[in-house]
Design goal:
Blueprint lengths: L2 H27 L5 E9 L3 H14 L1 E9 L1 H9 L5 E4 L5 H9 L5 E15 L6 E3 H8 L9 E4 L5 H10 L9 E3 L3 H10 L3 E6 L1 H4 L6 H4 L2 E3 L1 E3 L6 E2 L3 H6 L5 E8 L6 H10 L1 H10 L2 E2 L20
Parallel strand pairs: 1-2, 1-3, 5-10, 6-7, 6-8
Antiparallel strand pairs: 3-12, 4-8, 4-9, 4-12, 4-13, 10-11
């Protein structure tokens, strides 16, 4: 190959390289905090509240999100392998997980926006709506119970499984009488059809059931739970979340690893702001910041005049 042809090929390569980089930069520059397109990965156990937030956000701004609902483990792996830039999870990142980002010189922006809970549910035919957390943990450790025929989880890699394994100090779920499906809806359906089974689901799926799930949710009991170190049984309600009496609480976070001022930053600000917190309040979860209420005081003559 002549020297001229070599220079020609090199010039063409440099031209294509810089044009590809230019197209990439244009794509990033077209996304702002309130405009553009982005993918958001969401822990499946809290999908309903994120769907509500996205719907209002997209209705207010020129933005479009693609929501990918997966197990906690899959969402976190997507952050680690850089296939996800924005994620919503039901816990904060651990020190070990933060070190992974630090090694890549990435500082995730983490925004806490709500307090959620994990609920125990049973078939409607079960008249006993009380359950002690120690009995559930004991069952997970192999202790049989007359109240519990089986525990039903959504996904072996889900945040609910991780939460309960940490409480029980177990590395793995027991092989017998513990069942896992793929989604919270499948758990609710199975429990509604099988007496004696205790389902473990995110509260968000009970407070905001889809139209197709309303009849199924109507056929289950949401159980009140006695904590390990507390007296009394408490239902998973906003009031009990706020007072900290419900024993199975967890915080919800938006993790933004985009590395630039994109929709991740805008969405996190929106969800943590007044409108986003009102959406959380309406969903049945507890907002991280309770929205303020404005009172209109009407001045006038309050004395009854005799005619």
């Amino acid at each position: 190959m002549s020297r001229f042809n070599i220079y020609l090929v090199l010039s063409l390569f440099v031209f294509l390289f810089f044009n590809c980089k230019k197209d990439e930069n244009v794509a990033v520059n077209n996304e702002t905090i309130l405009k553009g397109k982005a993918v958001i990965y969401v822990d499946e156990t809290i999908t309903p509240i994120v769907e509500d937030q996205i719907m209002v956000f997209e209705g207010s701004y020129d933005a479009k999100f693609k929501l990918v609902s997966k197990s906690e483990s899959e969402v976190l792996n997507s952050l680690f392998d850089k296939s996800a830039g924005i994620a919503v999870i039901a816990r904060n990142l651990t020190k070990k997980e933060l070190n992974i980002f630090e090694q890549r010189k990435i500082v995730p922006k983490i925004t806490k926006f709500a307090i959620d809970g994990i609920a125990f549910v049973s078939n409607k035919t079960n008249n006993d709506t009380l359950i002690a957390l120690k009995d559930v943990i004991g069952f997970m450790k192999g202790e049989r119970s007359s109240k519990i025929k089986g525990l039903v989880f959504d996904n072996p890699n889900s945040s609910t499984v991780s939460y309960m394994k940490n409480l029980a100090e177990l590395n793995d779920l027991p092989a017998k009488e513990v069942y896992t499906f793929k989604t919270n809806n499948e758990v609710l359906k199975f429990v509604s059809e099988n007496n004696g089974m205790i389902g473990v689901v995110g509260v968000n799926w009970l407070s905001q059931p889809s139209a197709s799930m309303e009849s199924i949710v109507g056929n289950i009991n949401i159980l009140s739970v006695k904590g390990l170190d507390k007296e009394g049984y408490y239902a998973p309600t906003q009031n009990n979340f706020g007072e900290g009496t419900y024993p199975l609480l967890r915080d919800l976070y938006i993790v933004n690893c985009q590395g630039y001022s994109g929709l991740g930053m805008g969405f996190a600000s929106f969800v943590a702001g007044d409108i986003g917190q009102r959406i959380v309040l309406k969903s049945g979860l507890l907002p991280y910041k309770i929205p303020t209420r404005k009172l209109n005081i009407i001045h006038g003559n309050t004395n009854n005049e005799k005619k």
